[in-house]
Amino acid sequence: MQSDDFGFGTQIRKSPYFDATVRWGATGFSVYNHMYIPRDFGDPVQNYWNLINDAILCDVAVERQVEITGPDAARFVQMLTPRNLSKMQVGQCKYVLITNAEGGILNDPILLRLGENHFWLSLADSDILLWAQGVAVHSGLDVTITEPDVSPLQLQGPKSGEIMRALFGDSIMDLRYFWFREVSLDGIPLIVSRTGWSSELGYEIYLRDGARGNALWEWIMATGVPMRLKPGHTSTIRRIEGAMLSYHADADIHTNPYELGLDRLVDLQMEADFIGKAALRRIQAQGVRRRQVGLVIDTDPLPGPNTSFWTVAREGLAVGKVTSAVHSPRLQRNIALAMVSDDCSALGTRLDVITQSGAASATVVEKPFYDPKKRLAAA
Hints:
Blueprint: H1 18-23, E1 28-32, E2 35-40, H2 44-53, E3 55-59, E4 65-69, H3 73-80, E5 93-95, E6 98-99, E7 105-107, E8 110-115, E9 118-122, H4 128-137, E10 144-146, E11 151-156, H5 160-168, E12 180-185, E13 188-193, E14 202-207, H6 213-224, E15 229-232, H7 236-241, H8 277-286, E16 290-298, E17 310-314, E18 317-328, E19 333-341, E20 350-355, E21 358-365, H9 375-378
């Protein structure tokens, strides 16, 4: 298959790695942040085993960066998020939420601090570049907000550290979880972070020159193949096992942090103001009417992830929806993330899920479903 076989016109962008992923076996793509992302390298279950046993390389250039610079950049970034950034250091990454005036979640990016007043927001799937530029207009703050020429890859899996050592030398092994550093590979300018969307040991490699995408992909694959590295795509199975959010599925503009159990990402006591602070203070005081839970669904193995929201019911009455569901071959169970009424969220609660095959019984369980302390990713 040729790369030209994919296309909906020039309004959908192709990443710097697009041609390389097609050469290495990508046969299907979806659209994320107005850009193609590989979603099919063959059997998704085999992709999952490749990830958890060895390593995979994923084109995630769709994680577009919003770059915020200028004398007031630090104050401006704090305005966007309810997470307290006062102790964030240069070289550090943080998982943050971006909220609107009603406390709804607009995105859940990784924030990187490249300098005292130099930040990147590494985005999930929504137009935060436009949001940030709009907020800046009447903020009274001196900031510049752009999308830089930056395109991430994810190298994930238990052998990713060994591959990184072969690429960058022993010093890279000192890189701590949720920290980054600037490096280069044969003159290719990069930032490398100990982050990823897999719940496994992993790294994100941010290319800072889109013209070098093909060279970077091939260099990493040539280095990693002897260590069983495979081309791949972000694993729905593994991210649900780890209860990692997928924006537009598990969270959206109508979801607030307290419904997701992400209270730790909201600091209502800090002096700094942020968009949504008053609303989140009110929501915290009133309590939430629904909560995200983990479910085990008692039915035959699901043939694939859900492609629509499934109704969750109790005694015949709808009480919520399944947002993400999949069969875990490791756990040999159907696992799901769901948003349900608060009075149905206690562990052990029995519910019914209306799947594409009909009704199935389900039980509320703890999440994440595997490695709840994130020991693998933080190793």
